[in-house]
Write a structure and sequence with these properties.
The protein is an alpha+beta fold. It has 19 helices and 40 strands. β31 and β32 form a beta hairpin. One of its GO terms (biological process) is carbohydrate metabolic process.
């Protein structure tokens, strides 16, 4: 939510133009004979059962009109945004450092009043939710096939218009696209991705897209398949003009050839032009020893002539003329045989700048001088980069959890591969809340995003140390919630940052991070403790929060979050032997827990106790049912802490949220409660931010404030947070239902599945979805202690899921009494293991008895000697 604000929707309608051209099963619905979807209050038994089923990969089809909005980021994390379309074409190309708001800056017509009574919605208000973007192509790029067999030859572009059927498998980070035509003697499959390797942020941050085609001969005679790829030279997209010249040059290396594309002035100072924000270079290449290269592909419809190379090693044209380079590969394929041919597109746009921010330029310029250097690196390391990326995809999706669940809880990490997230030349991570909206890696938004700290923990460690405990920390310990862009801390952002620090410590291989930063961590925690003015353990200092207002009083969700943060700090104090501070933290959390449970629980859920002086004259949640009311306990589960809020009261609060805030169809609610942004529409399910079970006339205190609009919205980051908490508390059905509601809202028939929208596109808070995977696995980990634990929330007798630790990742399997860890990448130090078991008589590791303890339904094994697992190794346990 940004600094610049707006007035919100005042009259949400029940329909929008073209709503649900393809009607989908939604929560609580069954198909009537008419094909329409009657909505019931609760899902039926068959639908609930389907939530738990393993199912199959989500596959979107041309024949169901499900391809047009798909935009899967495939350009490397923190390298701009390149989308993979549903038909395999690349689009959007937001790589030119324009720093625009929204993937497509626009306002769209809507049938409800927004922005001072108008009927327009901006990018930060959900423009792409109402009217999803598609077909943004600032440059000409594509692939085509020439196929010959017998006496026949056909030429076919790889686009939606050219094939009877295309299927898209939505398995981020690698999508699989199939081009289907029964009339042809081949089957064709495309895998498209950028290298994505958890724990390796550098090789996952390459400005490159790989497109790997497989052609299988299904016929009875040999076929000759030539695949052509082309890329228009559009470097300096906005700056180049008549005074500039585009140049395409043949480049080659060991087992690859391509076209390098650049632009320069016809005369004058080239160094000045090189400083333009959109200056850069492109490269397109194909792997193999027999690549056909053309530095100037002819214009017009594709013919056989396009599928051959050209003699020119370099082509130069005025920048106002079109210049397109191409590469092609040709194979003869015998019946029953398959070939793979790989293409790669790289780019280099070094001049990333933000006014007033320390550090500039893109991180990848430290290693690569231009797109040709990127290409050379990728080609030289091609086997490793592609094998490890495919290994991660296989590891992630080889799970017993439902396919749709594994997709939805992971795909939001693709936000890192959009212009929401950047990495400066200095190595600093810097991000918006959503694309181009609300700067400064905002603490009160990014603290919800669980994915990055678990998959690329080095990025988060550096951000905690460099920014939160460095640039942004004030002498009193307060952390400016937008770094240089702000002059205040935010209370929830401060607490969430202390909790993230504990997570970052746990995701480290040793105590170095904690020891180096302990003094500043302690200051940050004392700042929180000092916000409790009356010493009752419940924070009550008016301060900014993520709902963009200063709230007064004792607010359950903020109180609980502060308790969790101080408890985490106490645990860190114990690890550094700061016993005095540990005692301070324990005193605070014990008082806070006791008083929160007695003063802020209304018998059903947790509330906001008004300030004794201001009362309800200022905005707040008061007696309403607020989505984050037990967020502190939710965070505690993410970092393996014990309870910070009583279990029965917490369960009561979560059940109240499901009862009052979850809507199988949000339409009637938002029609009766206007003012929110359209992040869920009529016919869609979701959880409302705040509801008013007691039907108070002015439930939020004030009668008119722009922030009131938030209370009537469905924002996926908050929904994922609640789902993760429900999963941890044993409310598995509710957790799955809520997660599936989000998944269905982002079905490709309606909008881009990879773009969960809040304040602009690819909103960071949505990465809270990974937290639901964490709690579904019951995963707990502490790298410096060599501790790992699993307690699956479902399919316990036949469970399988991936895990990521400080230095390695792999697969955990639990089948009856058999438990195993298979490490696929890196290394893993193990000293202590814990599993959910009771009545245990014996524990065997590799068939040898070991000592164990059992407590509260969990068995703990303390290894006599630390064990180091390496990639390819397994650890087998039997617990009986």
């Amino acid at each position: 939510m940004g600094i610049e604000r707006r007035k919100f929707l005042r009259n949400i309608g029940l329909t929008m133009a073209g709503t649900l051209a393809v009607r989908l099963p939604v929560v609580g619905s069954t198909l009537a004979a008419s094909g329409r979807l009657p909505l019931t209050r609760q899902p039926d038994a068959a639908w609930i059962a389907s939530l738990y089923e393993r199912g199959t990969v989500t596959t979107y089809l041309k024949s169901k009109n499900e391809l047009q909005y798909i935009g899967m980021p495939v350009g490397g994390i923190m390298c701009g945004t390149v989308y993979l379309g549903g038909d395999g074409r690349l689009w959007l190309w937001d790589i030119f450092n324009k720093n625009q708001e929204g993937i497509e800056p626009k306002v769209v017509a809507y049938n409800a009043d927004v922005l001072d009574g108008g009927k327009k919605v901006r990018s930060r208000d959900g423009a792409c939710y109402i009217e999803p973007s598609k077909n943004i192509r600032p440059l000409d790029q594509g692939f085509a096939l020439q196929l010959s067999w017998g006496q026949q030859t056909i030429i076919r572009r790889f686009d939606e218009a050219s094939w009877p059927e295309i299927s898209f498998e939505a398995t981020y980070p690698i999508a699989t696209i199939r081009y289907i035509d029964p009339a042809l003697p081949v089957s064709i499959t495309l895998e498209a991705f950028s290298p994505f390797i958890p724990l390796n942020e550098d090789d996952s941050g390459l400005p490159v897209t790989i497109l790997s085609y497989q052609v299988h001969n299904t016929g009875k005679v040999p076929v000759t398949a030539t695949i052509l790829g082309w890329l228009e030279n559009k470097t300096a997209l906005y700056s180049a003009g008549e005074a500039h010249e585009r140049v395409n040059t043949v480049v080659k290396g060991k087992n690859w050839q391509g076209v390098y594309e650049i632009v320069h002035p016809l005369s004058g100072n080239d160094s000045d032009f090189r400083q333009q924000y959109d200056y850069g270079s492109f490269c397109i290449a194909a792997s193999g020893n027999n690549v056909m290269v053309n530095t100037a592909l002819p214009a017009g419809e594709l013919t056989k002539a396009h599928f051959t190379g050209a003699a020119a090693k370099q082509t130069m044209r005025n920048a106002m003329e079109k210049l397109t380079g191409s590469v092609a590969t040709r194979y003869t394929i015998l019946p029953g045989k398959t070939i793979r041919t790989d293409f790669t597109i790289s780019w280099h746009a070094p001049n990333l700048r933000f006014k007033g921010i320390q550090g500039e330029g893109r991180y990848y310029v430290n290693k690569f001088g231009d797109a040709g250097a990127v290409m050379a690196y990728v080609q030289e390391n091609y086997v490793r980069l592609t094998q490890q990326s495919r290994l991660w995809k296989a590891t992630w999706y080889d799970a017993s959890l439902p396919w749709w669940f594994m997709e939805r809880t992971f795909l939001n990490i693709s936000t890192l591969a959009t212009t929401t997230a950047h990495r400066f030349r200095s190595g600093r991570f810097y991000a918006w809340e959503g694309v181009g909206a609300c700067e400064g890696t905002c603490t009160h938004v990014w603290q919800y995003a669980q994915a990055v700290g678990r998959v690329f923990p080095a990025l988060e460690r550096d951000t905690r140390q460099r920014v939160d405990l460095g640039i942004a920390q004030q002498p009193d310990g307060g952390i400016l919630f937008r770094g240089e862009a702000e002059k205040r801390p935010a209370i929830d952002g401060q607490a969430g940052t202390v909790l993230r620090i504990y997570r970052e410590h746990q995701m480290s291989k040793d105590n170095t991070f904690l020891q180096q930063n302990w003094a500043n961590i302690k200051k940050a925690t004392l700042f929180l403790i000092h916000q409790d003015r009356n010493g009752d353990g419940m924070e009550d200092t008016p301060m900014e929060n993520t709902l963009d207002a200063v709230w007064y009083g004792e607010i359950a969700w903020i109180v609980g979050l502060c308790i969790a943060a101080v408890k985490a700090a106490g645990l860190m104090a114990a690890e550094v032997n700061d016993t005095a501070f540990e005692a301070i933290c324990n005193d605070y959390t014990e008082k806070g827990k006791r008083n929160m449970e007695t003063q802020l629980f209304n018998g059903e859920y947790f509330i906001h106790q008004p300030d004794k002086v201001k009362g309800r004259s200022v905005i707040g949640s008061y007696n309403t049912c607020h989505i984050d009311q037990v967020y502190g306990q939710s965070w505690a589960f993410q970092v393996g802490m014990d309870r910070v809020i009583d279990r029965e009261k917490t369960l009561s609060a979560l059940k109240a949220l499901y009862k009052y805030n979850f809507k199988a169809d949000v339409g009637p609610y938002i029609a009766a409660h206007p003012g929110g942004r359209p992040y869920a529409l009529a016919g869609e399910a979701g959880m409302i931010l705040n509801t008013n079970p007691h039907n108070e006339e002015f439930p939020f205190g004030v009668k008119d404030a722009w922030q009131l609009g938030y209370f009537n919205e469905c924002m996926t980051g908050f929904e994922h947070q609640v789902a993760s908490h429900m999963m941890a508390e044993g409310m598995t059905e509710e957790a799955l239902t809520l997660t599936r509601a989000v998944h269905d809202r982002y079905h490709a028939a309606k909008r881009n599945p990879f773009n969960e929208i809040e304040c602009s596109d690819h909103y960071a808070r949505a990465m809270a979805s990974y937290g639901t995977f964490i709690t579904a696995s019951g995963f707990r980990y502490h790298g410096p202690k060599g501790y790992i634990a699993f307690a699956p929330a479902m399919n316990k007798e036949n469970f399988k899921a991936p895990f990521v630790t400080a230095e390695g990742w792999g697969t955990y399997t639990q089948q009856g009494s058999k438990h195993s860890l298979a490490l696929k990448y890196g290394r893993l130090l193990l000293k202590t293991l814990c599993f959910e078991r009771s009545g245990v008589k014996q524990v065997l590791i590799e068939n040898k008895p070991v000592v164990f303890t059992e407590k509260n339904g969990a068995v703990t094994i303390q290894l006599a000697t630390p064990l180091h697992l390496l990639a390819g190794q397994h650890l087998h346990l039997t617990i009986v």
